[in-house]
Amino acid sequence: MERGSRLILSLDPRRGEGLDRLASIVSGCCEYIWGVKVGLPFLLSYGVEGVERVASLCGSRLIADLKLADIGEVMVRSVEHLEGLVYGVIAHAFVGAGGALEYLKGYLDSRGIKLILVLSMSHPGSSEVVDGSFEALAGVARRVSPWGVVVGARNTGLIRAARAMSRDWKILSPGIGAQGAPPGTALCSGADYEIVGRLITESGDPASTARSLHRHYSRLVEEGCGTPASS
Ligand code: BMP
Can 67 be counted among the known catalytic residues? Predict the structure, then answer.
């Protein structure tokens, strides 16, 4: 994995898709990506063994996109399955701190796993409920002090707002490519990483697409987009 990269590769297989193809995509993209994100389609397809396999590829920084939204104890029991395998875990901010995210954060801190909170999503429906509560969700994040937050690339105003609220949060932004936002949109609005899935995995040549994106991001960073790279 490339420490200075701003690209997080998202793996969301269709039902029946083999793990070998995804593993070979990750191997081919190693030098262009900062990390890999896996979620429910991946876990339901390949289980924890699949996570182990991807985690073993080129020193993967793996983010488990569980979008946790439960009481603290149950969120912890979910993440326990992935202990020792993942760099970070994504949870929803809307469940709040008390009895939920504070408890999860305590557990994650004790295991050296990063917490990432969803503040805004990339699809149009995010404006129906979630985005109207942005200030409240950011308040939960301030209380819990996550390593990172998710803000969709569709709403660059909210990316800027999140960046203005904290220089400390890593901002991870999906919605690039298949969902319509041009690569670089989020980075140049203050995000640290762009999460990209189908644009890479469903391209004819995933490694070459990832390389082009990585080069594009490097150029944008040289021109002043994004925040300084860090771990
Ligand atoms: P793609 O680049 O193929 O659209 O994939 C985007 C990835 O980011 C998916 O894994 C999706 O679950 C995730 N995601 C998103 O698209 N929007 C959000 O607001 C939050 C996400 O985690």
Answer: yes
pLDDT of the residue at 230: 53
Residues of the chain with pLDDT under 70: 228-231
Locate the ligand 1 atom nearest the alpha carbon of residue 65 and give its number: 22
Q: Are 122 and 179 in contact (CB under 8 A)?
A: yes
pTM: 0.97
pLDDT of residue 231: 46
- Alpha carbon of 92 to ligand 1 centroid (Å): 14
Q: Is the CB of 190 under 6 A from ligand 1?
A: no
What tens digit of pLDDT does each residue of 72-103 get?
A: 999 999 999 999 999 999 999 999 999 999 99
